[in-house]
Design a protein that fits this description.
Strand 3 and strand 4 form a beta hairpin. Helix 5 crosses helix 6. A 7-stranded antiparallel beta sheet has the order 1-2-3-4-7-6-5, sandwiched between helices. The chain folds into 3 domains: 48 residues, no CATH class; 51 residues, no CATH class; 131 residues, MucB/RseB, C-terminal domain (Phosphorylase Kinase, domain 1, 2-Layer Sandwich), CATH 3.30.200. The protein is of the alpha+beta class.
């Protein structure tokens, strides 16, 4: 590979390990370097394919039958013939295999934790992509937080906190109403150079949580947190470090 950026920066950019300045430099470099653009696209495609459900297969029927038979034998009364120790290990290993396969093939929520968001990653990404279609990004177009916040009054059962972070490099673009998991939510729209950031907000009775580590799928990253009775999820195609910077500003 003839480009030093391709050897040293692409993977750090993909993993969100670059600071804001370094990310901006690399994005500017991408505009004129086809080689790095191809490497970045290949990395994103590989990462997306590794999360595909098609990589995981359910346990074969014969394996499940064998596990049931071994479990039945293991639970026989004490008078039954003693089961060799090695068979116990075989049963335990088989159970772990089936459990692992089931874990990876089962539909997962947005964040795998007790404090997960009430919608899936697929719903979140679909809402973000849908907003990027012409005419769908904002219902109220304004960088004035004193215009955007009152706009929600009467349209939702709650009014989300709204702040403009233009001085920090994240100008408020506007807002709209959106739907996630059948629930009406507020969507605050911010900008970062040519990138669009959606911050979905809805009320919650759950306790506050810190900003969770990012999720990543199809080239989009998101952060999720709860603070002062509100649940937030910020999503964009920005680098993880920049998106986290906005999340911290909102959390304060």
């Amino acid at each position: 590979m003839g480009c030093d950026y391709g050897r040293t920066v692409v993977h750090g950019y993909l993993d969100g390990e670059l600071d804001a300045t370094r990310s901006a430099e690399f994005e500017h470099h991408l505009e004129s370097c086809r080689e790095c653009a191809k490497v970045l696209q290949a990395g994103e495609s590989l990462r997306s394919s590794l999360t595909s459900p098609s990589l995981y297969e359910p346990a074969p029927l014969e394996l499940r039958k064998k596990i049931r038979a071994d479990l039945d034998a293991a639970t026989q009364p004490a008078a039954a013939p003693r089961i060799p120790v090695w068979r116990w290990f075989a049963v335990a290993a088989a159970i772990l295999i089936v459990a692992g396969i089931s874990w990876y093939s089962w539909p997962r929520p947005l964040i795998d934790s007790a404090a997960s968001a009430p919608f899936t990653a697929t719903e979140l990404i679909d809402a973000h992509v849908r907003s990027l279609q012409p005419g769908h990004l904002t219902d109220v177009l304004s960088s004035d937080q004193h215009t955007v916040k009152p706009w929600f009054d009467g349209k939702l059962a709650f009014v989300p906190p709204v702040k403009d972070f233009s001085d920090e490099g994240f100008p408020l673009i506007g807002a709209r109403l959106d739907v996630l998991n059948g629930q009406n939510v507020a969507a605050l729209v911010y900008g970062r150079r040519k990138h669009v950031i959606n911050v979905f907000v809805l009320p919650t009775r759950e306790p506050d949580t810190p900003i969770h580590p990012p999720g990543l799928r199809q080239g989009y990253q998101w952060f999720h947190w709860r603070h002062q009775g509100m649940e937030y999820c910020a999503i964009s195609d920005l680098s993880g470090s920049e998106l986290h910077e906005l999340a911290q500003l909102i959390y304060q």
